[in-house]
């Protein structure tokens, strides 16, 4: 039954609403489930949210009387859930408070079939609140492409935006996405950042792209983690598609250590789906929202990359020099370091690979890696942002101030085809961290070996 265009029904809503307000004692006794109370509460809810249907014709809100069983979620699933009858998978959900970023809404991280070539179809959001015994249906949802794929059958990163209905206080604790209104939910996500939180002014988090192909270099994991901790990373989040047993054991040694703040996120993207590195961009955007809830700055890298200050020792000190309120992203220009493949023990890449290109390659932001002001970033790419808040600007970091150290095992195609275009110089800047890094590396290595 629609609310708009039915004056008699609106009178009934008003009348029953007044009855509810005038008989608080009866309405407060929810456990009795009186028929009048049930009708009052449902119609009052629809009356409150009815204005939203008029303001946004695409956002229609309904009470799902058939969905009264509340979901019980003790922890987030960390798996890709298929939306029935749609080539869409959902992974995680976050509370979006920024009005200039489609808020207030629930932002869902999703991977979907290439929408540029294929019809996705309408999606509807179903939300569960602590104060209501039924689900609220909102939709059709907004479908935002994070990155378009190159091929018709590729799976790409997307946001599904579920706008919050007006007239309902609080934030839903769970959300489901389906192809129809009030259909039995086949997906279920926790809303991970429900409570309002203010990130610390100069706090930094590190996000590392998914490990894949049964990643084996567990010593490299230790070195990169410990090096970033020396640089100022207060929390590290890494995504794992597939990794070797000893790599898993290394990660477990961090997650079970109460003195560490390391998160390992399972990223079980289906291997038989065509995508760019297992829908990598969805993982990076997930981490932006996951870590941006706690930290002012979120840095995105691959495991063989380090964003290194050149005029200070830490990221915190660097930000004191360059940070400005309007900057939404700090882009570190790319320097390729020839990785030393020695088998010496301990094998520390940063302390044995000292030859790099003499200038940024290329001397633009294309191959940068970025440090984001989390509250000013909306969607991000592997190297640079896709979309910042309207009042935010980009900042290209001068190499003499800070640069991206890329310890790549194999040269890129451009180096192989045109070696005459590149000059290499010796750069021992990372030796300043050597003593502390070796000490931390050896301590963690012993901890890992004790787990065997």
Overview of the structural elements:
This protein has 452 residues and is α+β, with helices and mostly antiparallel strands. The chain folds into three domains: 9-55, no CATH class; 81-190; 200-450, Spore Coat Polysaccharide Biosynthesis Protein SpsA, Chain A (Alpha-Beta Complex), CATH 3.90.550. Helices cover 24% and strands 29% of the residues. The strands form six sheets. The chain has a seven-stranded mixed β-sheet, with helices on both faces. It has a five-stranded antiparallel β-sheet with strand order 1-6-5-9-10. A five-stranded antiparallel β-sheet has the order 2-3-4-8-7, covered by helices on one side. Strand 3 (88-96) and strand 4 form a beta hairpin. The longest helix is centred in the first third of the chain and has 21 residues, at 35-55. The protein is globular, with a radius of gyration of 25 Å.
Distance between the termini: 63 Å
Number of strands: 24
Structural class: alpha+beta
- Spatial strand order of the main sheet: 13-12-11-14-19-16-22
Mean pLDDT: 86
Describe the global form: globular
Can you tell me the CATH architecture of the largest domain?
Alpha-Beta Complex
What is the class of the largest domain in the CATH system?
Alpha Beta
Major β-sheet profile:
7 strands, mixed
Which value, in Å, is the CA radius of gyration? Answer: 25 Å
Note poorly predicted spans: 1-58
Which features characterize this protein?
29% strand; five-stranded antiparallel beta sheet; alpha+beta; seven-stranded mixed beta sheet; Spore Coat Polysaccharide Biosynthesis Protein SpsA, Chain A; 3 domains; globular; 452 residues
